[in-house]
Design goal:
By secondary structure, this protein is of the alpha/beta class. It has 6 helices and 9 strands. The strands form 2 sheets. The protein has a 7-stranded mixed beta sheet. Strands 1-2 form a two-stranded antiparallel sheet. Helix 5 links the parallel strand 4 and strand 5. The longest helix has 13 residues. Bound molecules: S-adenosyl-L-homocysteine.
């Protein structure tokens, strides 16, 4: 007899043990991650590991972030349902699904064309593609044609903060971006307000490198 995994239970467990216990408090983020079937976003061979407390290989040298990191970034952006969001680095589309279930709309860029296609398929398969557009291409300079954005989430480690991302941010608006070297970064948050730019560091982190014009190559 083949045992069918209880995904809902695994999801609940992940939300309790990995998110709530580490002070993720935003109800919208917790609800999104309680409902989005992460098991369909990881490659089929890793499905049984979908809810583990770590990043997972999604091919092409890239990863799906640890659930906690996705939650922390989404919470940091303080999405309220009216937001226009830019994501740089869609990967398999999971974080886009989380943000898209809270925000008004999400546009997410992915530099690896195969992953852009996979992200689109995954979002369509789980019925979350209504307000999310995945665009294949370099997002290190943002995506000017849909700017300004209320929130920008960069899911790859940048050598510096691209000026164009700050330009494409609304006022008020929030940018979250890992900045550092290729291996280790600090997750920085920028609040753009009428009084100016306010920077803070959220945590230390380890993302795959940001590529492209404002990235590492
Ligand atoms: N958002 C994902 C994490 C993806 S990992 C999640 O749901 O967990 C980061 C992704 O950024 C990789 O897929 C990588 O290919 C992509 N990437 C790196 N540099 C990029 C760039 N300049 N523009 C767009 N995508 C980029």
């Amino acid at each position: 007899m083949k045992l069918i995994p209880d995904w809902a239970a695994q999801r609940r467990n992940m939300v309790e043990k990995q998110l709530r216990s580490r002070q993720i408090r935003d109800k919208r983020v917790l609800h999104a991650m309680q409902t989005i079937p992460r098991e369909y976003f990881v490659p089929p061979r890793y499905r049984n590991a979908a809810y583990t407390d770590q990043p997972i290989d999604i091919g092409y040298g890239q990863t799906i972030s640890q659930p906690y990191m996705t939650a922390l970034m989404a919470e940091t952006l303080e999405l309220d349902g009216s937001d226009s969001v830019l994501e740089v680095g869609a990967g398999c589309g999971y974080a886009a699904a989380v943000m898209g279930s809270i925000a008004k709309r999400v546009v997410s860029l992915e530099i690896v064309p195969e992953l852009a296609a996979i992200a689109r398929d995954n979002l369509h398969y789980v019925g979350r593609d209504g307000n999310i557009t995945i665009i294949g291409g370099d997002g290190s300079m943002g995506y000017a044609s849909r700017a300004p954005y209320d929130a920008i989430s960069v899911a790859a480690g940048a050598p510096h903060v691209p000026e164009s991302l700050i330009d494409q941010l609304n006022t008020p608006g929030t940018l979250v971006i890992p900045v550092g070297d290729r291996g280790d970064q600090e997750l920085r948050i920028l609040h753009k307000t009428r009084d100016g730019l306010l920077w803070n560091v959220v945590t230390q982190c380890r993302f795959v490198p940001l590529r492209g014009g404002e990235g590492w190559d």
